Amino acid sequence: MAEGITDLDMSSFDEAISASDKPVLVDFWAEWCGPCKMIAPILEEIAAEEDAIQIAKVNVDDSPDLARRYEIMSIPALIVFENGEPAKKLVGAKPKGALLEEIGEFL
Amino acid sequence: MSDIRDVIIIGSGPAGLTAAIYTARANMGPLVIEGEPSSTSDQPGGQLMLTTEVENFPGFPEGIMGPELMMHFRAQAARFGAEFITQKATEVDFNQRPFTVEVGDITYKSHTVIISTGAQSLMLGLPNEDRLIGHGLSTCATCDGFFFKDQEIAVVGGGDSAVEEATFLTRFASKVYLVHRRDELRASKIMQERALNNPKIEILWNKKVTEIQGDEKLSGIILEDTVSGEENALPITGLFIAIGHQPNTALFADQLDLKDNGYLVTEPNSSKTQVPGVFACGDVQDDYYRQAITAAGSGCMAAIDAERWLEENDA
Fold it and tell me: In sequence order, what are the residues at sequence separation of 6 or more whose Cβ sits closer than 8 angstroms to the Cβ of residue B293?
């Protein structure tokens, strides 16, 4: 059974990303972002279905430093971290099929 | 036959979801093909999903957030049994009855179809545009404005949405240039006054964008003066595009009448298209009012038109 989605912030981010033995897909989002709300249920489904990848969320309002560190200029932004390093960045909301295709190499 | 539906609704903005609420309450069991998530205005919930505060929708004296309003619409339709498919319709056939609507590999049949696919943002059509979306170039001020704190940015356009975006973006940016190709704005008086009185907004009149520059991220634009032809560079870190909309009618172009500007033709004071049993509502057939409330009103008309058509035709 895959785990759910973890909320990360500045204090927990680095440890969570580097400690994970799986790739971590981080969803940079905010309350005021309509497209972010559209993909939230898709990410919940992927979290429940896919064991190979861990999914986490960063609220950019609460953690603007993390958004700045990864040069986020548009949300939703999804970054896949592998061995603690960003391996792939996706910008903009996408349907589930397209999203799974984009992250296929990590599944 | 039980696999033929009473009504399929294509599109899920204020028009489509109002039609869904009405047809669901009329026991027509609507199937809503609501579209796919995206960061353009072409997505479930429609253009309001990319806005913030909606101040002019009746019933919300304090205003309501656009995405929240659309989630209310959807929940209300779902409460009465509307079904949703979060995909795009890929093909329709109105030449045979029952009508068919294809979504990928699956074909749905229905006695009536309500089209409410809305309109989506126009792009400039310049090189580098696609590549720099999400890297300084944006079609969604509410999604991306936050990331341009204390920076100098520009909005292209002169209508209500451009002026509204420019005003909204001054919450974050240190300076917002409003680039407009004419010498006057099309925006409503109240929006114009807000922009003209905002010290952070500078309007660049008679200018059009001829080039978008930047490697990894946007670094600037080239502007041409539409009167003198003179070109100059404007270094900015963000560019927001609000130059208008085009109706999402490609799917229907060879089966329904379109106006010269691409919008669907409906009979006056009705949602009827020229194919009996096919109805259209919202921005896809409205190039004049284009408001959430008028879209919702026309969605209600389409639902009632479809219900009466079913009764009269005993389908």
Answer: B14, B56, B57, B58
Residues of A whose CB is below 8 A from B48? 34
How many whole angstroms separate alpha carbon B73 and alpha carbon A95? 21
Domain with residue B229: its CATH number is 3.50.50.60
Reported as a single tens digit per residue, the pLDDT across B155-196 is: 999 998 899 999 999 999 999 999 999 999 998 898 899 999
CA–CA separation, B46 vs B251, rounded Å?
17
User: Shortest CA distance to B49 belongs to which of B19, B85, B74?
Assistant: B74
**pTM for the model:** 0.86
CATH class of A5-96: alpha beta
Give the pLDDT confidence of B174-184 residue by residue, as tens digits.
999 999 999 99
Q: At what angle do helices B292-313 and B14-25 cross, to 10 degrees?
A: 40
Which chain B residues are within 8 Å of A73, Cβ to Cβ?
134-136, 138, 144, 147-148, 217, 238
